[in-house]
Amino acid sequence: MSLMSMDHISVGYGANTVLRNVSLAIEPGEIVTIVGPNGSGKTTLLRALIGAVRPASGTISRKPGLRIGYVPQKLHIDPTLPITVERFLRLPGGHTNVACARALEQAGVPDLSQRQMSGLSGGQFQRVLLARALIETPDLLLLDEATQGLDQPGSAAFYRQIEQVRQDTGCAVLMISHELHVVMSASDRVVCLNGHVCCEGTPEIVSAAPEYRALFGTGTGGALALYRHEHDHAHDDTCDHDHDHGTHGHSKKIEAAE
Description:
The protein is an alpha/beta fold. Helices cover 31% and strands 22% of the residues. It has nine helices and nine strands. The protein has helices at 42-49, 85-90, 97-106, 122-134, 152-169, 180-186, 203-207, 210-216, 222-228, and strands spanning 4-13, 16-26, 31-35, 57-62, 68-71, 140-144, 172-176, 189-193, 197-201. The strands form two sheets. Strands 5-6-7-3-8-9 form a six-stranded mixed sheet, with helices on both faces. The protein has a three-stranded antiparallel sheet with strand order 2-1-4, with helices on one face. Strand 1 (4-13) and strand 2 (16-26) form a beta hairpin.
């Protein structure tokens, strides 16, 4: 059973339709990344999944008892507020010190518990937000461009930690990212979004798809070439703008040409 699925949802703000007829399913234990240009509806999709925005049409289903952890794009904390990492993690649910320590360990920053939140670097702050999401032992971890503002080494290290979290806990991960070179190495499946699902599949297949190239070009060069070397002709019959008649997740998959 899928952890969560969208079935032909559309979302709009006023007269502006942001998402149109989007279908997506998230399976246990997989890492799925949503990519797309600015204004393509990536964050709106995540907001719909967590219930922060209601679709105008379509349905969203969750596995009963599903636990979700959420890492936001950013979080502002008043720098004059004296609060330690441990205290931050214990709000508002009153989690134990043991639970806080375990979450920080999983996030790769076990020694930060007594540090002031205001004294953390950007990378440390995002790891603490990750720990906060993990403290509830989620089945599904949602990340909304969680590495925005980090340099490339910091972003790469963060995504390596996400892979380790998946390995250690078995949770599924759905993340939004604009860092294509990282996406291609950290994901089991990539969904290319531009108001609708342009194409979807493994990183090597999506990177060769005409719709993906139309949006992003081939500017990631070597990072994508790594995945294209056995799929030079995968784009011949891989993408479809219309995803009404797919199978898994109700959206048409991209298949590599044999």
